[in-house]
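Board notes (copied after class):
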Amino acid sequence: MIDKIEAFKQRTKELSLRVIKLFQSLPKSDEARIIGKQLLRSATSVAANYRACCRARSDAEFFSKISIVVEEADETLFWLELLAEAQIIPIDKLTPLLKEYEEVVKIANTIRHNRKKG
């Protein structure tokens, strides 16, 4: 179980780094920077909040933090979709990140659901 926790921690951190690199490569237009900053905030929040939920002092704190992870991962998907639909970044360049964040949403939601049952 600890291996899965550490693997997910690492995965979300690596995704944050990928989003940082994407942000650095965005065009210098106002809309790209505004959307990019929102994306940067939500993506890094996923990793930070998952890390925090692993250190939760109570079930309520864990549930709260994992819920934030789900919300922020879904928001990250939104900003990635917006970058593609606004034709700021070609969809084929975003597809791997979109798939990763879809998986993160599913995993975090499953963790939240299982914890709620238990």
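Comment from the instructor: The chain has a mean pLDDT of 95. Residues 2-117 form a domain with the de novo design (two linked rop proteins) fold (CATH 1.20.1440.60).
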